[in-house]
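Objective 1b. Sequence-to-structure analysis of histidine kinase.
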Amino acid sequence: MSALRAFAVPLPAFHPDDTINAVAERFLQPDLAKALSLAVVDAEGVPVGMISRHQLNDIFMKKFGRDLFGARPVRDFMRTEILAVDADRPLAEAAAFITAHMQFPLSEDFILTENGRYLGMGAVLHLLGAMEQQMSRNVADLNRAYSQLASSQAQLVQSEKMAALGQMVAGVAHEINTPLGYVNNNIEMVREFVAQMQLILQGHELLASTLLSPTATDVDIAECLASIDDMKAGLDFSQWFADLDQLFNDTFYGVEQISELVTGLKDFSRLDQAPTDNVSLNECVESALLIARNTLKYKVEVLKRLEDLPKIRCAASQINQVLLNLFTNAAQAIRDTGYLLIKTWTDDRWVYVSVQDTGCGIPRESLRRIFDPFYTTKPVGEGTGLGLSISFKIIQQHGGAIRVASEVGKGTRFVVSLPRTEPVSLSAVA
């Protein structure tokens, strides 16, 4: 059943030949107390006009109005431009039609028809009230949908961040495992050396005890000396201590590398600093390169052309995230081996960083969509299509811009520009 039919009130209709007095008398009946107008229909029940209380008032307010016009037929006074809609018409369409054609001030109801014939009258205010309620429900539905969309977007962005974090942690773990491995090996070698030294020391302690014993014989002393000689056989102490010194140097170097990586990770995330700080873009480049080293080192030669830059106020951890994404994308675009050229420079208003690779490039038709959420040129399973979208949003929130140029088969260049002055508003990406 159409929703519009609920507004149909089966009020009586008049024939064009009915008199004005008959209409006035009918309007005075209690069942029509709230009716603003009534339909005028022909013999087939097809609406041909409308007559309203307002029209009757105009007639009877005139001097001798009832005497002059009361006996005349309704057809002489009815409004032939009727406000009628089919009962099966959608509610929104009917409301739009009635709103566009009703007169102000509101003095008429509207006619509902079925197959062109009179069905009943409907109140304009009731219909508009129902539409207002429907709009309120639609707004509530839209708000719920928007909230769900925002929540889904936040979850997707968080998933992208966690995926990037997983890749970053895997790379850092690999970088830490290399020096940690030979530090562990060196410690094992030192442990073996200490064990041998302990045996030799124990032999010398036994010799000293034997020499001091009043009951010791020359045979006992000779046996102790022979045992010590056996333990020292084949040992070159000068070379042994030189090797030990080298082991310590290698161990300290490995520990320094681990310390450098941990410090770099802390600088990359900026966990010990305010959300925004005065930072050199060159420092962000170095931090991101350190974290991306495991991804880059096997096939990418990094070339740096970093100029002296003034510090800018920014969320360094977010800028680091953008640079890491650009470096990682460059590594993935280089199939075998290639170059990554990183340049920084400045002018009176901006600081710039350019990231240019010799990878496979991006097709022209893809460039205009490269920053769209979920759009990716990578194979299935290698990207979510959110990395560059998040990067674009981060740079935009910093008051900057990110541009891209690419040629298939030759490579891609991204240029990030950030203002030298603090942006008006800066908020974190969810």
